[in-house]
Queue: 2 jobs
Job 1
Amino acid sequence: MVLTVNLPTESYDIVIEEGALARADDMLDLNRRCLVVTDEGVPKEYAETIVKKCAAPTLITIPQGEGSKSLQLFQSLCSAMLAEGFTRSDCVVAVGGGVVGDLAGFAAACYMRGIDFYNIPTTLLSQVDSSVGGKTAVNFGGTKNIIGSFHQPKKVLIDPLVLKTLNPRHISAGLAEALKMALTSDREFYGIFKAGKAKESLAEVIKRALLIKISVVEQDEKEGGLRRILNFGHTLGHGIEALQGDDGLYHGECVALGMLPMCGDGIRAEVTEILKSLELPTVLPVDLEEALAFADHDKKCVTDGVNIVRVDVAGEYVMEKMPLEEWKQLIRDRVGGMI
Ligand code: GLY
């Protein structure tokens, strides 16, 4: 299946196909210098499969975890490209999850003011969300994604076969981001979660999540408005994530926790049960006040208030701006009620 992201300046395909990794050279132009970036948690054979298909590969394997989204590693990727004589005609290929995609994409966005970038997401989370839409970034000064750029990939290759080696926690974390799309935008899609069928319907989940993602990105590529719905649960989620080291909760797990208090009273209990059935956390593992304090630096918090997304009815979002302190109080009230 091929889905297309149609943007005013550049359109690109997302190929969803079992065995796509093994046939990458049929779909990507690898007949040039290629910086292949992967991480230590990704089975080696995935990046090696791509490397063998490149005319002039440079392979960089970064440590696993959010800590790799750093300016130091960004510099390492740029240094490698410079040392290998990469030109504007060469490319970067990410083989991994969201961290690899964000870092490699940012290096592709900046090197010589932007070179081609291919994304081959190997986690469910990156397949349903982060590999599409062109967000690239590193973390800086304790703030997530604060330095980055929009740089759309030339193509995204999704091979569902790679999910077979993914640990179950990563599957659940990816499902949290897919549930985010369903809750904000698609009641029918939400029905798959409500019926307890999400884990056994991954192909359908990937397709439906991507259709929502594509529609949102096509309407609002640079997050002037609508794209904020993809941040549902992320303001608190980022705070929870920032308080933990690389051994803490995964990004998708923090988003799950962040979404709960943004769900209205009529739906929160049901969403809590869905999260439990997906083996996602429903109880905060960190101090709430400390997590809320991170919102003071969140780039979604503009000076005159926080842009928040709420869901009171499954499949429908409410987007509004509220004073930061009012948002914090809403979370305190609801988290208090959840315990
Ligand atoms: N993952 C959120 C976005 O792409 O906007």
Job 2
Amino acid sequence: MNYSVAIDGPAGAGKSTMARRLAQAISFVYVDTGAIYRAVAYDAIRKGVDTKNPEAVASILQQLHLQLHWSAQGVQQVYLADEPITDALRLPAVSAAASQVSAIAAVRDFLLETQRAVARENNVVMDGRDIGTVVLPHADVKIFLSASAEVRAKRRWLELQAAGRTDSFEAVLQEMNERDERDRNRPIAPLRPADDAILLDTSHLTLEQSIEALLKIVQEKLKR
Ligand code: DC
């Protein structure tokens, strides 16, 4: 039996950085599930498919050929057929479209087994929105990470700046609020903590403090 740690929370709560560091510390495979929704969005945009149209998006799924690989450093790489697309997935246009396609039932159903298969075959730290509630309801540890919208937007803005982008902070905050709203209020798999999730608010913690708190919770839980 493999172990699984589910980490859910809103955009910019620090899930991916913290989940990656946690996975390294406990030698588990880090699975970034947001990247696979982003891959669907990326493919739709490139094919000129309206990401708000459920039938149109559903029609491209069978040809998706999504593959996940991990580098020797444990970094997840996403491929469509043999094409590496990981770097393109963080662009703001892809973020907004990913939030739209993730509200489509056919997309969620299609990606569910991909996610569960990775968790069956590996010890995983998996991050997303519905990992503790839907994808891995029997996860050994469930964490719900949060932080205020301003703090999360600031973190995402700094990330974009570091990548050489010139998006304004206001635009990033607005996009964050819109995405939160959609992710929380969608009828299927809305963003919410599982009943047995442990809540961790990182608004007033540095990254290192947040990681330390996370590691402590997970090590305690896995010991039992
Ligand atoms: O974590 P992220 O920002 O890379 O996620 C991109 C979008 O995908 C986000 O708007 C919500 C959605 N998502 C989801 O619905 N379920 C997941 N398990 C992961 C992401």
